[in-house]
Amino acid sequence: MKSGLFFLLFGLISFGTQAQDLFFYPHLAPLLQQKCGSCHRKEGGAPFELLEYKHFAKRKGFIREVVSTGYMPPWTADSHYRSFANEKQLTVTEKDSILRWLDQGGKEGSKPPKKVKNTVSTGISDPADIELGMPEAYVIPGNNKHHYICYKIPYELPGDAYVKAIEFVPGNRSLVHHASYQLLGVAPGVDHFRGPSYYVFSPDSTERIDDARDFSYFGLIDSAGNYPIPVFHSGYLPGSGKQEYPEGIGFALPRRGVLLIRSLHYSPTPLTATDQSKIRLWLADVPVQRPLEFAAFKPRMAGDTIPADSIRTYVINIRTKGDMSLLHINPHMHQLGKSFLAWALTPAGDTIPLVHIPRWDFNWQEFYRFKHLLKIPGGSIIHAEAVYDNSSANPANPNRPPRPMLIETGSMDDTTEMMRLVFLYVPYWAGDEGVCLE
Ligand code: HEC
Q1: How far apart are CA 223 and CA 108, in angstroms?
Q2: Residue 31, exposed/middle/buried by CB under 10 A (0-12, 13-18, 19+)?
Q3: Residue 187 needs a FRET pair 20 to 30 A away by CA distance; which of 125, 284, 304, 416 works?
């Protein structure tokens, strides 16, 4: 009797696993469309579409490789150290089912009667309250070189506006490699609509983001010498979508201001192309109570040189003042970056893990969003360590053979290195630990 039951159960279990053939429809499509289709779609930034069966069927071997190595979806932070709300990587179970489906031949199954709708929100159906963008298409030269520009978009609003969500929308998704932008308020005496709207960074110089030069070039300094007032700063990378803030958190959009795209990096193209990028803004009905703040930390060794064929570590050690609640963290290095680790040490002696990137990849930087507002008590030490590999063993090293590399000149291009740790935060309020950012 007992053994009969055993066999019956065994039979059921083995039926459950062996006969469970996986098919694209209906088993894999929802997962793959969400985890791959967010970038691999027409305006998504990746080089080809991955939405329908035919897109996957063409590349089964390639997909097996990028999924089993973890190269796709791109995510470089160690989620055992700190896991984030915007994690893109696959769970072990998800990875297993993709590989099992491929092992079984990657079969299609029966396509649902209606065309499968792309379930990924493109945001387009969610109209923004304000859009600020390049008034006309920018022409990207077809010279097969990286191309960097700085671009000013002036605006004037009829009244007060409080931003609760923001999204950078690249016009040319296959060429916009990344963007870093600021919203600035201008003084009453400044005619911010006048003057040039952009300049091009010359490809081989050590030009840097320089407030004095940029503000004066774009005519944003008033007669008393006052600079425009920065209210918000963020960036775009492939896969980064809309940033939404919890209730009451956001920023006031100045009535008269500019969207200054401090650096817009276009990938090399052999053919002349155009781009018309913009930001979309969603407004809160009531004034934001808690304006967002930024802190950017850098090491003390400005102007130091990383010798050729060497591995160097730079550190940041900074004591915070008041209690902070972190929303996002963004580590930044250039191509010599090898790893990045940051934590906070509280006055009570507790360690708060912040971010660990064991294998830095310049192409996959992120604004890592915490799962809940993360409290950093005042008086904590923010500690960060960035390791740079200036040897020829680093495949991303822009110099072959390696050359001495300056660090911390603030330069835009890959002739110098950089170390930054950026926090997006608000001053702490009691109960913030429970505020969800997912
Ligand atoms: C965050 C955006 C993003 C997500 C999510 C993403 N990809 Fe990609 N993928 C890219 C970009 C950009 C490239 C081209 C650059 C590169 O190859 O590194 C790429 C390249 C690829 C390639 C070509 C690799 C090569 O060596 O040329 C494959 C295959 C691929 N992706 C498959 C996938 C699969 C499968 C998924 C989901 C499991 C996925 N991707 C998720 C952005 C993404």
Answers
A1: 67
A2: middle
A3: 284
* Closest atom of ligand 1 relative to the 98 alpha carbon: 38
Segment 61-111, tens digit of pLDDT:
999 999 999 999 999 999 999 999 989 899 999 999 999 999 999 999 988
**Regions of the chain where pLDDT drops below 50:** 1-19, 116-124, 205
Rounded Cα distance, 75 and 83, in Å: 11
The reply to whether ligand 1 has any atom less than 6 angstroms from the CB of 40 is yes
Cβ 62 under 6 angstroms from ligand 1: yes
Each as own residue / partner, the long-range contacts of residues 398-406 (CB below 8 Å, 24 or more positions apart, any chain) are 398/335, 399/308, 401/308, 402/308, 402/309, 403/308, 404/305, 404/306, 404/307, 404/308, 405/305, 405/306, 405/308, 405/336, 406/206, 406/303, 406/304, 406/305, 406/306
Distance 140 CA to ligand 1 centre (A): 24
Q: How far apart are the CA of 167 and the centre of ligand 1, in A?
A: 22
Residue 129: what residue type?
D
- Which residue matches tokens 């920065």? 230
Which tokens belong to 3? 């053994």
